[in-house]
Amino acid sequence: xxxxxxxxxxxxxxxxxxxxxxxxxxxxxxxxxxxxxxxxxxxxxxxxxxxxxxxxxxxxxxxxxxxxxxxxxxxxxxxxxxxxxxxxxxxxxxxxxxxxxxxxxxxxxxxxxxxxxxxxxxxxxxxxxxxxxxxxxxxxxxxxxxxxxxxxxxxxxxxxxxxxxxxxxxxxxxxxxxxxxxxxxxxxxxxxxxxxxxxxxxxxxxxxxxxxxxxxxxxxxxxxxxxxxxxxxxxxxxxxxxxxxxxxxxxxxxxxxxxxxxxxxxxxxxxxxxxxxxxxxxxxxxxxxxxxxxxxxxxxxxxxxxxxxxxxxxxxxxxxxxxxxxxxxxxxxxxxxxxxxxxxxxxxxxxxxxxxxxxxxxxxxxxxxxxxxxxxxxxxxxxxxxxxxxxxxxxxxxxxxxxxxxxxxxxxxxxxxxxxxxxxxxxxxxxxxxxxxxxxxxxxxxxxxxxxxxxxxxxxxxxxxxxxxxxxxxxxxxxxx
Length: 481
Hints:
Blueprint: E1 2-6, H1 10-21, E2 25-29, E3 42-45, E4 48-51, H2 62-72, E5 76-80, E6 83-87, E7 90-94, H3 98-105, H4 107-122, H5 131-139, H6 141-156, H7 165-171, H8 177-184, E8 200-204, H9 209-221, E9 225-227, E10 232-238, E11 243-248, E12 253-257, E13 259-262, H10 266-269, E14 273-274, H11 279-286, E15 290-301, E16 310-313, E17 322-325, E18 339-348, H12 359-372, E19 381-394, H13 400-410, E20 417-419, H14 422-425, H15 431-447, E21 463-464, E22 470-471
Helix pairs in contact: 1-9, 1-15, 3-4, 4-5, 5-6, 5-7, 11-13
């Protein structure tokens, strides 16, 4: 088969690698001029390496873990997870430690939190539809306001009452007061792993982009072609024979694809399909929303102010949402061990005042807020750099699920168009989830029939069968995958 893949991020490159390995003709179209990995790429500035966000390599799927090791092997290091929450001028270990919460919040506030939790359990919101409903039901109103509301609204730019409960159920599934207490007290229950509470993970020694740079090289060595600086403008479908053509932004057209695999944002992909999709599907695609992302990188000398991988900033007085310490992920991320490299993460909408701010002003803002938080002294900060990432997060606002349903139904009329990955499926997922969707699509193409539905892969890279049972990869995948 000749297969076109849109996007050289984790999902697209996984599909390309596996299909090339199976002997298919694969062409990957990547919009970035020179970097693969998508939002999982590793940027570089004056020898300093940094992520676009933090990317832990942890999965419950044996197939995904085996894939990572097949690609990178000994270049994967074990990283100890260490993170904190900054609230009211205090740092709280995350996962939360009961004794620390009581000490730092004080006995009165802690008691109020407990009573608020009891009230939520006695009088829960029936049929929770929003993120706020879901978290209040599981943690109580006061804990929601202290540890969830401010940060979440920074991330999404909309009130928590307008964010779908699906996001909470997906991203913090299994997390509750009971599981936090069990983790704090080292109590194991049925050996169930909750991703939010894991204490270690794998990480490429030169950042997540290393995984996808090596994957791209190995796929190319198996005759896959990866075209950089090749944004896709449109797709053309022919029924007889069933084939696809790809038109790029430079108006060049590539023809004869038996399958198209897309990890591109649905917002961009659907309007470019010909014959044109129905009006409801077109409107559904254009009605999807995305949150954009800015990393302000600050380089410091002899800072030693925090050793965590990252800190969540639950503080309304500053705009920064999270701060990464890249040397804590891997010491090889900095070229000089007397230096530190922090990534201050700002969430915005493309085109708004934050997005259009001059780089120098963003670096000044990041410096000011780092000093305000007490995480550095002015004389320690020696340089700065800015990276903007459009469409970093698909937004789970009210009504998004109905829009996706309309689009999925419409695509039944376009055989052999496969959607995978975070933006390709409008699912705010982790790498392993994206990788599993690509694996299943590759298996379908190898088999010549639809044996697996990638839409049934959940946040834990597990597959939901029709009867509700979960198995890694659905019908048991071959050990060779």
